[in-house]
Amino acid sequence: MQRLRSYGGVTLLALILLAADAWWIVSEARVPTGSARILVWQWLAALTILLLVCVVVGNQAKQRLIGILIDDRERISLARVQWVAWFLVLFSSYFVGAVWNAAYGADLPAMEANLFALIGITSGSAVISNLVVDAKKREPKPASATDDSTLVGRIDVNQSSKEAAWEDLYLGEEHANRAAIDVSRLQKLVMTILLVVVYFEMLRSAFAQSSLTYESFSMPAVGTNFVTLLGASHAAYLAYKATPKTAKAAPNPA
Hints:
By secondary structure, the protein is mainly alpha-helical. The protein contains 6 helices and 2 strands, in the order H-H-H-H-E-E-H-H. The chain has one domain (2-242). It is elongated and about 70 Å long.
């Protein structure tokens, strides 16, 4: 019950802070300053509020500031990292854009088809990844590791959230490759960082333009190359994740 109250308090505080940010946006719309930075700062304020919520609830759940990124295996999850990153960037920008447009009696920010494809790819990839992991958890442990408590089926697990580490993002997650760098995970991590940073800059530019012209805001369009890179990265990651892996046999002592 105490934990539920804590989560409720965090939610209420987040709503109050977002409402304050919305009031700031509407006030600026009524008294234009012509500053190219004002809407950018209002967006960064919303982004910071959401990030703080993620930190607080993650800490309450896992007793670590990065708790929201830690899954039921007590590992930092690559799927969670990309999901949270896109949530923070997209939701914060859409919220600010929607309030800005509403202040002028305009419609909600426009989103083109490729952006919906981006959301679909990132969300679908996370779901499929979880299904693959669950299936491999149900497989029997390797014969050489039947007493290994760090395995559930063929999947590597930690004993507590304190063991979760950033290397979980690029090391293998099965018995066969948990001590090796998983290139499919590494390329997905790098591609996620690259595309999030690129879209972050696109948003900053779009907000700066709306601040100067006082026109309605639209979510920046992403091109076909952007979505193709994202899709190819996720497809390679999921294909390798689903592939059966065999541990190298231990050498036979002479």
